[in-house]
Structures are given as C-alpha cells and as structure tokens.
Amino acid sequence: MNEPGSSRTSCASLHKTIHGQKRIADRDARLRALDPSASFIVQAPAGSGKTGLLTQRFLVLLAGVDAPEEIVAMTFTLKAAGEMRQRILQALECAKSDRPPQQDHERHTWELAQAALARDKKQGWQLLDNPARLRIQTIDSLCATLAQQMPILSRFGSVPTIAEDAEPLYLDAARDTIAELELGAEWSDAIAHLVQHLDNRLDRLQGLISTMLARRDQWLRHVADPDHPGLTRENLEAAMARLVTGALRELAAHAPQAGASELMALARFAAGNLEGMESPIAGCRDLQDLPGRQVTNRGQWEGLTELLLTRDGSWRKSLTKKQGFPAPSNANNQQEKARFSEMKQRMTTLLESLQGEDAFRRRLALLRGLPPHQYTDSEWKTLQALIELLRVAAAHLELVFREQERVDFSALAQAAIRALGDAEAPTDLALALGYRIRHLLVDEFQDTSFNQFELLKRLTAGWQPGDGHTLFVVGDPMQSIYRFREAEVGLFLDAREHGIGQVPLEFLRLTVNFRSQQGIVDWINQHFPEVLP
C-alpha cells in the first residue's frame, strides 16, 4: 500500500524525468515517433529523453492492441528493462488521477497513459495488478525463450548456462583443434602451415583461434560453405580493392588544395634523398599533383602519409633524414647546406599550416590500417589454411558447449534464429510469433550484433507496411558500449538506410540534450560525423 502522497511524489518524479517543456527544438520528431501505424529508427544521444520516448510509444501502442503481449520491448540489460517497466507502470499509476499536469509534455504522457488505462479497463487486463503481462525483456532473455520453445531446431535440449566470460570456452576449443595435428586429420596440413607461419608458437595459434571464435558471428556464415563463391581469391581481392578505393576517394576529397603544389615539391625533394631505400616516401619522386583515387595510387598516398604523420597518427613536428630531410650539417658544400635548410624550413611551415586539417589527418592515418588489395601466393595459402581451420574450430566449440553445458551470447542468438527458420520456410514458432507480436521496440540498437540483427529480420519476416505491424528501434551509434559482445555499429547505419528485412524504417533524430551543456553537445555532434556518418 502506498503511503499518502507517494503517488503524487512518484508522478512528479516521472514528469521531471520525461522532461516537461513548453516547446523543444525536436518536438515534431518526438511527436512523429508516436505514430502507432509507422515504423521508425530513432537516433537518440545520451540525455535526450530516449527512455521517456519509449515509454510514450509503449503507452500509445497499449491503447490499440487486443492484448498487452502483442507488444514486445527488448533491451540489452536487466537494469534497462526494469527501468522501462517502472516508467510505464508509474505513468499508468499517475493516470488514475483526474487532474492533468500543468506542463505540456507531462500532460501528453498523462493523456497517453489515460488512453492505455481505458483500454486496460475495457479488455480486463488489470496491468497494475499484473505487470508481468508487459513483455519488456532483454534480448538474451528473448533468445533463451525462443530456443527453449523449439529445442530440436535450436539444438538445445534445455537452455544451458550463459557464460558471461566465454574466453575459457574458446581456448578449450582452440586447444582441441590444434591437438588434431598429431592425429593425422585431413586438416593437419592446414594446422602445420599456420604453426610454421606463426614461428612454431602454438600459443599464438591458440590465441588467434580463440579471438576469431569470439567473433564468429562476423565470419562463420561466410566460410561455412567451402564452395562459397565469395571465398575465391579473385572475389576477395576485388572486395579489398573496393575497400581501398573507397578510402582513397575519401582521402582525396579531404585533401586541402591550398599548398598542394608546395607539398608536391617537398615530397619530391624528400623522395630524392631516399632513393634506393625502403621508405614509402621514395615512391613520391615523380609526383606533380596530388595522387589519384585508384588502388594504383595507394603507394603515393602511403608515401605522403609517412612524410606528414608520426606513428601515432599526429602531424609531424620534427623532420630527420628518415623523412628525406638531412640535417644541414651533413651537407657536402655551402650551396647544399642552404638548400637543406631552406627545404626543412618550408616543410615545417607546411606542417604548421596543416594543423587545422583534422579530417585529412584522420583519413591519412586510416590508410595505414587498410589491408593489401592483393595477396601474395604465400599470403593466399595462409588464408586458405586459416579458413579451413576456423571451420574445424567452430565445430569443436559446439562440442565444448555441449560438454560443459555453457554457451556464449552468440550461440544463444544463433539458436533462436534456428528456432525461427527462414523467410522461405518459417517454423510454426515463427508463424505463431508473427501472429501474436504486432509491435517490436528495441532499445540501445547501436549495440546490436550480426546475429541479433538477423534475429530481428526473422521476427519481422512477412511484415508489410500498413498491415498493423510496426518496428521501433532507438539508439545512438556514437555510444556503442558492447563491442566486447561483437556489437557492430555499422548495422545501425545500414538499418537507417535500408530498413530491417522487409520493414522500411523512417529515420528520426533527437537533438535536444537534457543533461549536457550545449557547447559540449555541439562539439560532439560536429566531430563524430567524421567517424560515424
């Protein structure tokens, strides 16, 4: 039983949390997000009132369904699920009062909750007495539920323990894989090749396999079929060439034109002093203009990168003979001494002028991390051996899971996917869920992994715009925290552009931040688009 006045206090707390304001800059986007007939992807930075918006949308949906179980909200943590449930129940409790709040936004939440309560009364749900009917759960909990309902297809007789730290399982599978070297297995040659490639360090091979198993949802679907056309050398090299070309195109687009001719002259000077040496700067000897945007121009861009940046990716502040600028004291005569001094001073001046070109600097630094766009024969043989061994390691990991009755999050999500079948052959469970679930809400969508993204596609298979189903995902790619669980922030950007499965998503952006000072928000929004467009 609540103490007198406690309901009023909790309502005031709720209203403060959901941010009552006369008029906020992104009000139209927030109102649009409450359309119960449309699907959305919402970019909501920290402090933007994301949970309040999810609460409001959930209330809107409650007012239009036949049963509360038709709405499923998924989060990534128990804490987030509990907070969302509390917000919704608190809003319903506040709506029992006939006195509307004074603030516009508070009144709006109260009105939505009143409509939900009216539906509750008509349908006899009694949600305040039966809060378990609100399907607000973690995505891992949903996966476990799905796997348990179809034990044969999911390959889980019963739901095993989830290993928060699965590294020991990966290491066990890696050891079992390497042990087959002495058993004469058909992939023993692949193991032997990789051991030799890693200087006969079995511990390094074990660590490599373990690391790759932790990220298997990124590669297993590509390498599972030995005859997959995407695994040919030609196709892999073409894919890498596209990646490099795209990076060079971005780099060239951000290269400052002012001072370009001076940079070319200085690069030619430096290259001339490094002739016959292994420095990439030597490849700039004949540069007359900024390099082009094709893979054939990569070497010249790498030379400029070496000339301009330190190892940690910052602009150089000093120059030595390693960059092609000998000390004047090393000159053979006075004329050469003056030349060395002049060119070094000109290069120092140029570097100072580049201090504000941060986008250009970042793209130069990124160039160093790109893979080669072609394999040597030795590299190709090593890659083939690794692909073959990874298939075997993935199978050993499945055996480890069964033996120890523990699995990782990726295996749990994969089991749920198997339980749902595919779009062409959905299981009875998938068909039943498609009938029972009308609305899906996903919080912290930027923390979604490949497997979880695929799960959403299976859950929404067959949904069409206007058929009464909606998908609502909200998150912020600037604050992905679950990289250790193979979250892939690029999936947020892909969903924004292409939707999820057959469900197109309207993009909305929340811009008002209720926590940070505006100057901090503006700085973050200015700089992060360079990293996360």
Topology (elements, then pairings):
Blueprint: H1 6-18, H2 27-32, E1 40-43, H3 50-62, E2 71-75, H4 78-94, H5 104-123, E3 135-138, H6 139-149, H7 151-154, E4 161-162, H8 167-179, H9 188-197, H10 202-214, H11 216-223, H12 233-254, H13 260-273, H14 298-308, H15 334-353, H16 358-367, H17 377-404, E5 406-407, H18 409-420, H19 428-436, E6 439-442, H20 450-459, E7 470-475, H21 490-498, E8 506-509, H22 518-527
Parallel strand pairs: 1-7, 1-8, 2-3, 2-6, 4-5, 6-7
Helix pairs in contact: 1-4, 3-4, 3-5, 4-5, 6-18, 8-10, 8-17, 9-17, 12-16, 13-15, 18-20
Can you give a write-up of this model?
This protein is mainly alpha-helical. 53% of the residues lie in helices and 6% in strands. The protein contains 22 helices and eight strands. The strands form two sheets. The chain has a six-stranded parallel β-sheet, sandwiched between helices. Strands 4-5 form a two-stranded parallel sheet. Helix 3 (50-62) packs across helix 4. Residues 1-9, 15-22, 481-487, 516-521 and 523-533 have low confidence and may be disordered.
